[in-house]
Amino acid sequence: MESLHIQQTKTSPEIILESDKGLAEIIGESYPENAMAFYKPVFEWLSAIQTAGKQIQFRFQMDYFNTSSSKVIMDILDNLQKYHDKGGKVEVEWLYKEDDEDMQETGEEFSSDLSLPFKMKSYK
Amino acid sequence: MMENEVINLFKTYQETSEYNLLVSFKGRLSQEVLTELGSMIRTSLSTESKIKKIFAVFIELAQNMLHYSAERKINEEQKDAGVGILIVRENSIGYHVASGNLVLNEKIEFLTERIQKINSMNKDELKSFYQQQLRSERPEDSKGAGVGLIDIARKSDGPLVFRFDKLDGKLSFFTISAFFTKEN
After folding, report:
1. What phi and psi, each to the nearest 5 degrees, are found at residue B183?
2. Where in the numbering of this chain does the SiaC family regulatory phosphoprotein domain appear (chain A) (predicted)?
3. Nearest to B145 among A31, A70, A109 (CB)
4. ipTM higher than 0.90?
5. Which of A76, A86, A91, B170 is the most buried (most CB within 10 A)?
């Protein structure tokens, strides 16, 4: 299980996957040409971490994402919820700029169906 | 050798001036072109409070065209890309973000019903519809989530406006436009 650091581009976010800490971060903007293909490494990492039975801290700090990315984020959260349901230790953090009501509302919408620990935090 | 004809751009210039276009593009789209057009929007609308919503709607329309326009061309990277028109126009009361591209006639009924259904919903109904669609399986042959049009309706002000202009027995030109009111 390898750690991975994907650099930000104009249309895709920075992704940090730290295996030792079980920490995943997605930071920035996301509207890649093919969102499913772009996020494939995240799902592979999740699968490896979960097989090893580690705890996961997943942090979203996004300014904008398109609907294809929105679907993938939903898939990530579903994946984390399943792990949580099976007894895995999971915590999600949703960070949004303090004046970004849309991103705050989006976080609330995503978390509405989840029972895993989901923290909303604003930043300046 | 081809003769270098004089091309009369005056009519095109007059029309585009009349439309007050902030951004206009016609041709083969690519992720790179789409990104640059997005940057242009961010620059020209940097003081507009709805800039994030306008940008997001533009990206949805552009990616729809890139992936689903029935007119296709192979680009430099040997990738198949959609062809069409994208515009952002400003007038005294707001902004129009619109796209136009070819679609197969067999898609007209689906698109019409989809847009009419979306237009019949209020903001809360759109929110539930979005959530429900996001949680369902990805549509076949889709690179996205099948929620692009719902997202456009949620972000913009007022109903989506659309039309089909029939070309022949196989293809039509599909225009769709979202509107944003100016707050001041």
Report:
1. -80, -25
2. 6-122
3. A70
4. yes
5. A76
Domain count across chain A: 1
The answer to whether the CB atoms of A67 and B127 lie below 8 A apart is no
Residues 6+ apart with CB under 8 A from A33: A11, B31, B63, B66
Q: Which amino acid is at B64?
A: N
Name the average pLDDT for chain A: 96
Query: Residue type for B70, please?
Result: A
Q: For each of the domains in chain B, give its residue range(s) and CATH number, in order of start.
A: 21-181 (3.30.565.10)
The contact set of A with B (CB < 8 A) is 10-11, 31-36, 64, 66-68, 70-71, 74, 102, 109, 112-113
- Is B55 touching A (CB cutoff 8 A)? yes
Q: Which residues pair with B163 in a beta bridge?
A: B175
Task: Decide if pLDDT at B1 tops 90.
Answer: no
CB-CB neighbors (< 8 A) of A32 in chain B: 31
Residue numbers of the domain that contains A14: 4-122
- Please tell me which of the candidates B55, B131, B148 has its beta carbon nearest to residue A67: B148
